[in-house]
Structure of non-specific serine/threonine protein kinase:
Amino acid sequence: MGFNFRYPSIILSYLLIFSGSPSLFSHATDTLTHGQSISDGQTLRSAGDIFELGFFSPGSSKYRYVGIWYQSISTQSVVWVANREAPLKNSSGNFTIGSDGNLLVLDGGGSIIWSSNLSAASNISTAQLLDSGDLVLRSGSGTVLWESFHDPTDTFLPGMKISLDTKTGKRQIFTSWRSPDDPSAGNYSLGLDPLGSAQVFMWEGTVPRWRSGQWNGQVFTGTTMRSLYIYGFKLVNDLNQGIMYFTFTQFNSSLLRFVLQWNGVENCTILVEGTREWDTVWAEPTNECEIYGKCGIYGMCNDGDTPICSCLKGFEPSSSEEWSKGNWSGGCVRRTLLDCRLNRSGDRFFRVAGVKLPDRSAWASTVLNEAACETACLNNCSCKAYSFDSGMGCMIWVHDLIDIYQYPEGDNDLYVKLAGSELGLMDECRHEGMLPGGQEIAVKRLSRSSGQGLEEFKNEVVLIAKLQHRNLVRLLGYCIQGEEKILIYEYMPNGSLDAFLFRPAEQASLDWRTRFKIIEGIARGLLYLHRDSRLRIVHRDLKASNILLDEDMNPKISDFGMARIFGGDQNQANTNRVVGTLGYMSPEYAMEGFFSVKSDVYSFGILVLEIVTGRRNNSFHRVAIVE
Ligand SMILES: *[C@@H]1O[C@H](CO)[C@@H](O)[C@H](O)[C@H]1NC(C)=O
Ligand SMILES: *[C@@H]1O[C@H](CO)[C@@H](O)[C@H](O)[C@H]1NC(C)=O
Ligand SMILES: *[C@@H]1O[C@H](CO)[C@@H](O)[C@H](O)[C@H]1NC(C)=O
Ligand SMILES: *[C@@H]1O[C@H](CO)[C@@H](O)[C@H](O)[C@H]1NC(C)=O
Ligand SMILES: *[C@@H]1O[C@H](CO)[C@@H](O)[C@H](O)[C@H]1NC(C)=O
Ligand SMILES: *[C@@H]1O[C@H](CO)[C@@H](O)[C@H](O)[C@H]1NC(C)=O
Ligand SMILES: *[C@@H]1O[C@H](CO)[C@@H](O)[C@H](O)[C@H]1NC(C)=O
Ligand SMILES: *[C@@H]1O[C@H](CO)[C@@H](O)[C@H](O)[C@H]1NC(C)=O
Ligand SMILES: *[C@@H]1O[C@H](CO)[C@@H](O)[C@H](O)[C@H]1NC(C)=O
Ligand SMILES: *[C@@H]1O[C@H](CO)[C@@H](O)[C@H](O)[C@H]1NC(C)=O
Ligand SMILES: CC(=O)N[C@H]1CO[C@H](CO)[C@@H](O)[C@@H]1O
Ligand SMILES: CC(=O)N[C@H]1CO[C@H](CO)[C@@H](O)[C@@H]1O
C-alpha cells in the first residue's frame, strides 16, 4: 500500500504562521482533551512513538481519512480507519471531541461525518492513543467509554479480541478494505463461528470462505500457522459474562499484525528489524484447498493430488459430469447405506489421516478415550465420523462432512463410518486383537490416504525390527494387503502416559515412585536409541501420548513413524518437512528444521516437566472450549 500524505500549502503556511502561538500540537502528544481538535497535517503520537493518528490518503485516492498507522514505518501501514465509509473530500477536516464528549470527524463546513456515537458520553472526556495502537476515550473519572480496539477495521493487533457474545450472538467482526485505494468495507469479513464453535471464520459476503479449524487448547488445528515462538493465541470463555473471545500475544519484540486483506487473504506479517519491511509469517487462504468446502460434502481436498478433489473412501461424486469438469461443489454421496444397528452393527470406521477436521463437530465431553469415542459414534445412527485427540477429546460429526483438507502438517485423524462391505479388503488383513497363541496384541493401522503412510510404515517396520530394549515397544508382526498397512505391537494394558498425566481421575494413581520409574525408563530407552544400539536414532516425536505403559507401569517408547537413522559421525540434519508435535519441538527444529539427538533431549525435558507437574506445557491457560 502506498500512502500520500498531502500537506497542501495552505495548511503548511497556516502552521508556519501560527507556530509561535501556544498550540498543544507544536510537538506531538498522545492525548486529545475535551474541546481540542487536530486538523489535517497534525497528528497524535503514542507515548513510545509506535503509533500515530492523523489524516491520510490511501494509495492513489484523493480523499482524506482519519486513521492510525505505525509511526516509524516509511511504507505507511494503516491499522484502523475512523471515517472509512465517509471520506473527507478535501483537507479541511478536523478530528475532535465534541461538546457531548464523543469523538468526531468534522468536514470543512463543520458537519459531523463520523462519530464514536455514544449516547451517554462525558462532557469532560479525553482520548489517548496507546502504544498498543488502541485509541481510548475516557470519561473525566477515567472510565473507558469507547476504544478503537472494539471497533476494528481490517487489522488484528496483539491485545485485540475477536469475540462472540454468547447470549446475544453479537460478534466483533473485522472487515477488509474494498481496494488498496479505498478503506470502505469490502467483500470479506472475519469473526468467530456464530454457531459457537471455537473457530475463526472468514466470509465472502455471507458465504464461508475459510476457517481456522478447531482450537485444541494450543493451536488452531486446521491451519499451517506453526509459529508458536512468534505468537500465541488464547481462548477465553467467560460463562458469567456470556462472552467468548480469542486474543493473541506476541513473544517476539518485532511489530506483528494480522490483516484481512482486500483480496480475501488473512496475512500475518512481522517487521523485519533493520530492513523496516513487512515479512509474511503466515497467510491463508493461499491455495485452493484452503477455500471452505472446495470439494463439497464428503469430498476431500489435497493440493498434492491431481485433481485436488477426491471423494472419501466409500463415497462417489454426486455428479460425475460436473466433477470431470472440475466443478466439485456438489460433493459426494455414500455408495453403500450404513447398517446402524446397536452393538452388532456391520458398520466400520475408515481412517483418513493428517487432515483439517471437517466443520460442525460436536464435542462428546463425557467420553474420555478413543475406544469409547468410537463406540459413541458407532451407537449413534446420526454419527458420520469421529476423531479423538488428547487436547480436544472426543469429537463426533452428525452433519454432512464438509471442508476436509489433507496436508503435510495436518495432524488429526478422522474416522469415517462406512458399511462394513466397503472395507472388504481390510477384512482379510484384520486381526481379532489376539494372536493364535492367545497373546494380546495392539494393532496400528495406516491407510493409503494418509499421504505419508507407506514411507512411514516402512520406516517404522525397518527400524523397530532392528531394535530391542525393554523400554521400547516391541513389534510382533505386520501386514500389507492392498491399500491396508497394519503393524502389530505387544499389548500395553495401561495405555499411554498422557491419559494418566492429564486426566484428573487418573492422576491420583501416579505416585512419585511411579513417576520416577517412568522418567528413568524413558531415559533408558532414549539412551539406547541415541547411544547404545547399533544405530543412532532420533525419534523426533517424543511426547506423552507416545509413551505406552505395561501392566506394571513400565514405560515403553512407541511410534517410530517419524524417526531418522543417523550415520556414524553425523550429528545434525535438516528437513523441509518439520513433523512432530508443537510444544515438544525444540525451537531450532520448529523454526529452521534442524534436528539432532538434542531435539529428542529437549522433548524429553518437556516430558519430565509434564510428568513432575502433571500439566501440559501450555504457555496459555485454557479456560474452556465450548461446542
Ligand atoms: C472542503 O469541503 C467542505 C465540504 O465537504 C466544504 O464545506 C469546504 O468549503 C471545503 N473547503 C475547501 C478549502 O475547499
Ligand atoms: C478545525 O480546527 C481548527 C483549529 O483548531 C479551527 O480553527 C477550525 O475552526 C476547525 N474547523 C472546524 C470546521 O471545526
Ligand atoms: C452513529 O449512529 C447513527 C444513527 O444511529 C448511524 O447512522 C451512524 O452510522 C453511526 N455511526 C457510526 C460511526 O457508527
Ligand atoms: C459537565 O456536566 C455537568 C453536569 O451535567 C456540569 O455540572 C458541568 O459543569 C459540565 N462541565 C463542563 C466542563 O461543561
Ligand atoms: C522475531 O522473529 C523474526 C522472524 O522469525 C526474527 O527475524 C527476529 O530476529 C525475531 N526478533 C526477536 C527480537 O526475537
Ligand atoms: C466484491 O464483490 C463484487 C460484487 O460481487 C465484485 O464485483 C468484486 O470484484 C468483489 N471484489 C473483490 C476484491 O473480490
Ligand atoms: C502479506 O503482506 C506482505 C506485506 O504487506 C506482502 O508482501 C505479502 O505479499 C502478503 N502476502 C500475501 C499472501 O498476500
Ligand atoms: C456445479 O455443480 C452443481 C451440482 O453439482 C451445480 O448445481 C452448479 O450449477 C455447478 N456450477 C457450475 C458453475 O457449473
Ligand atoms: C447393546 O446396546 C444397548 C444400548 O446401548 C445396551 O443397553 C446393551 O447392554 C448392549 N448389549 C451388549 C451385549 O453390549
Ligand atoms: C447423536 O449425537 C448427537 C450429538 O452429540 C446428539 O445430539 C444426538 O442426540 C445423538 N443421537 C442419539 C440417538 O443418541
Ligand atoms: C495404575 C493402573 O491403572 N494400573 C493398571 C495397569 O494395568 C494392570 C493390568 O491391566 C492393572 O492391574 C493396573 O491396575
Ligand atoms: C516448547 C515449549 O513450548 N516450551 C514452553 C513451555 O512452557 C514454558 C513456560 O510457559 C515456556 O517458556 C516454553 O517456551
Q: What stands out?
A: Confidence is low (pLDDT under 50) at residues 1-26, 425-430, 448-452, 619-627. The pocket of 2-acetamido-2-deoxy-beta-D-glucopyranose (ligand 3) is lined by residues 114-115, 117 (CB under 6 Å). The two ends are 39 Å apart (CA to CA). Residues 290-423 form one domain.
